[in-house]
Design a protein that fits this description.
With 148 residues, the protein is an alpha/beta fold. The chain is built from five helices and four strands, in the order H-E-H-E-H-E-E-H-H. It has one domain: Rossmann fold (3-Layer(aba) Sandwich).
Length: 148
């Protein structure tokens, strides 16, 4: 399995369907191509003011009509037990986009305010086990989709 972290969301301009003609803005094209190269997606988003941060929602708006997320297996990873509104909003938005949100791969990792690096996550057996199970479910769904 290869993991790619997309780090250009901030470069995606505000959604404007008038700009989404023959040639979309370059940042939008790069975002769409990155999604097209994926067999599955993990979205881990903070909650801000009971919702999804604007930059993420904006990027998703750019791919509603172009369809990169249609039938795409998606896992939603939440890191706060109190942050439920963003998860619900993301699940709703992705459902409308016909993405395949995998409930068995969508988990809350209770960090409880701790800041853990990769080594700290691996060292925490409960977190590592939950993440491993979620990724296994997502990977199995991605393999099944490729086989179809």
């Amino acid at each position: 399995m290869k993991v790619f972290i997309y780090s250009e969301l901030a470069s995606v301009p505000p959604f404007n369907p008038d700009l989404d003609g023959e040639t979309a803005p370059d940042a939008v094209t790069r975002f769409r191509l990155a999604l097209q190269a994926c067999d599955a997606i993990v979205i881990s988003s903070p909650e801000y003011a009971h919702g999804v941060p604007g930059v993420l929602k904006n990027a998703l708006d750019w791919v509603v009509a172009s369809g990169e997320l249609i039938e795409m297996p998606v896992a939603l990873i939440n890191t706060s037990e109190r942050a439920v509104h963003a998860w619900e909003s993301l699940a709703e938005t992705l459902g409308v986009m016909s993405a395949h949100v995998l409930l068995d791969a969508s988990i809350t990792v209770p960090l409880g305010g701790r800041t853990l690096d990769a080594d700290g996550i691996v060292a925490d057996a409960a977190i590592a086990t939950a993440l491993r199970r979620a990724i296994d479910v997502l990977a199995a769904e991605a393999r099944e989709g490729r086989a179809a």
